Amino acid sequence: MTQWQKAEQFMASTHEVLNQPPALENYNVLHADTALQEAIVRGHAGWAQNDLVAMGALAGKAETIELGFLANAHKPQFQSHDRFGHRIDLVEYHDAYHRLMTIATEHGLHASPWAKPQQGAHVARAANYYLHTQVEAAHGCPITMTFAAAPALQHQPDIAAEWLPKMLQHSYDPRNVPHTEKAAVTIGMAMTEKQGGSDVRANTTYAYPIGAKGPGQMYELVGHKWFVSAPMCDALLVLAQSEQGLSCFLLPRWRPDGTKNPIQIQQLKDKMGNVANASSEAELRGAMAWMIGEEGRGVRTIIEMVAMTRYDCMIGSSAGMRQATAQAIHHCQHRSAFGAKLIDQPLMQNVLADLALESEAALTLTMRMAQAMDKRDDPHEQALARIVVPAGKYWICKRTAEHAYEAMEVIGGSGVMENCIMPRLYREAPINAIWEGSGNVQCLDALRAVQKQPESFAALQTELMGVKGVNKALDAAIARLPQLLQQAQEQPFYARQWVELMARTMQAALLQQHAPHEVADAFCQSRLGDVAHLGYGRLTSPATAQVIVRRAWS
Ligand SMILES: Cc1cc2nc3c(=O)[nH]c(=O)nc-3n(C[C@H](O)[C@H](O)[C@H](O)COP(=O)(O)OP(=O)(O)OC[C@H]3O[C@@H](n4cnc5c(N)ncnc54)[C@H](O)[C@@H]3O)c2cc1C
């Protein structure tokens, strides 16, 4: 061999790639998740097993995971006019987005409990959503809005009769054509305006009656909307002022005569996360809309939609935490440092177990709310959901951002790279916390719940009574809640302390009832009582940490 040939051989092979984990793909997301499997059985959704196993396999498939990357790499594109100068207000998405929407709708994530109500229907749908959204969260926005719009629309039975059957179809039709030409539709929501998001009473969009006034009648809307996500939805539920105050309207993309309804998109938002989903700013220039529910009671009409979207935020953020936990544990199983696998390093076990604890607590609380959704005729369950959904939405969404960052750090430098899912999970994390009622608004809503429906806090206390005497820290937290509530009622300044403890106490109680004692006790020990710092990696028992990690990744 000549010197040159030797050099060439040397240059062609500089090193062997060692100590790098394989991609986390081609696994069943459901089979890896013991806590989820248990929650499905507990929630009487065992009948959905085949569908959930299929979704678990699909969500873990390399091709499906790739769809999530593609949908985010290729941002939605907006065209205001066609090449002939006609206004079209068209948002075009990458094919991967449409394929994700197809999977979601074919599995009924936008509608299944309404389409086929049965015992465990909400639990099955929540589990399905939780599995699927681990692949990609942004396209969940129109899925959630369509799901949440159904109860609100039922306030206007004549309009619901036309739209609901199409909303409940387990299929997806992305064509930009009138809803009358479609078998399946999606619904969005436009409440937020520039001068007021949380405070929708500040809305200035005005609704002018075209003929008769009142519920079910046709109006023309003039004004603007500052956030309209998924603007290609076939219709939006919007709030606008009418003679008797803020009212709710259904605003379709097309008029009955087949012409385009003048909902003019000004531009797409340039978001840090939720990139695969388009969010727009729009102006309504005499757009035709139909009043839904009582005039002047728009907030009351749409509030059910809002409550359902908040519940879905719990599912979405819990799923984000689960995916981050799975990525972190998987990485540590395959990566060594200083002579041992990371998963066997005691300090890393502490961090992983703590991440897994947070994730299981989030899932358990979320699935308990899914069970409450399944019992819509049960006053106790409805009272409980009234207070736990805002508290859970607040706490789970808030915990997700730090959780994502910590999981990213577990993976190290590669965890920061865009070809890893972690940056996407991290950027997605604050969105649910802000969307549909930011942190303070959730806390104030929980306070309002107690004020207007004192039975909501009573329902929570009844729930907590079931675990009294099981754990000292939990007992102390339960005892402290009324005192913190009183303080928050006197001064909303303290509302976060009350809501946070309420969410953690409920999580702890559920874990004590349903999880292995190692998980439940570690949660009570680390999350209740005088918690000065809620960072990760501060558990106190190495043996317990090992049990928690093993349970988290089977
Ligand atoms: C990605 C994304 C998509 C969205 N899509 C939609 C959509 O499709 N349709 C839609 O209608 N909206 C949408 N929104 C808007 C979203 O719902 C609002 O941003 C949110 O409700 C907050 O409203 P705001 O931005 O006006 O903030 P503000 O209402 O101004 O609130 C700012 C801050 O003040 C706090 N605050 C408000 N009131 C009080 C109070 N009384 N005491 C203490 N603190 C208070 C809030 O918690 C918040 O932290 C979207 C937002 C995002 C980020």
What is the helix/strand order? HHHHEEHHHHHEEEEEEEHEEHHHHHHHHH
Shape: globular
- Helix percentage range: 40-55%
Helix count from the secondary structure assignment = 19
Major β-sheet, in short?
Answer: 7 strands, mixed
Task: Please give the number of β-strands.
Answer: 11
β-sheet strand percentage: 5-15%
What's the N-to-C terminus distance? 52 Å
Bound molecules: flavin-adenine dinucleotide
Mean pLDDT, as a whole number? Answer: 96
**Would you tell me the structural class of the helices and strands?**
alpha+beta
* Low-pLDDT regions: none
Gyration radius, in Å: 25 Å
Give a brief description.
By secondary structure, the protein is an alpha+beta fold. The chain contains 19 helices and eleven strands.
Blueprint of the fold:
Blueprint: H1 3-12, H2 34-42, H3 49-60, H4 62-73, E1 77-81, E2 87-92, H5 95-106, H6 112-115, H7 121-132, H8 140-153, H9 157-167, E3 187-190, E4 206-209, E5 218-229, E6 235-242, E7 245-252, E8 263-268, E9 279-292, H10 298-334, E10 336-337, E11 340-341, H11 346-373, H12 379-411, H13 422-434, H14 439-452, H15 455-465, H16 472-490, H17 495-514, H18 517-527, H19 542-552
Parallel strand pairs: 3-6
Antiparallel strand pairs: 1-2, 4-5, 5-9, 6-7, 7-9, 8-9, 10-11
Helix pairs in contact: 2-11, 3-7, 4-5, 7-10, 7-11, 8-9, 8-10, 10-11, 10-12, 10-13, 11-12, 11-17, 11-19, 12-13, 12-14, 12-15, 12-17, 14-17, 16-17, 17-18
The structure holds flavin-adenine dinucleotide.
Flavin-adenine dinucleotide is lined by residues 188-192, 197-199, 227-229, 271, 274, 279, 431, 434-441, 444.
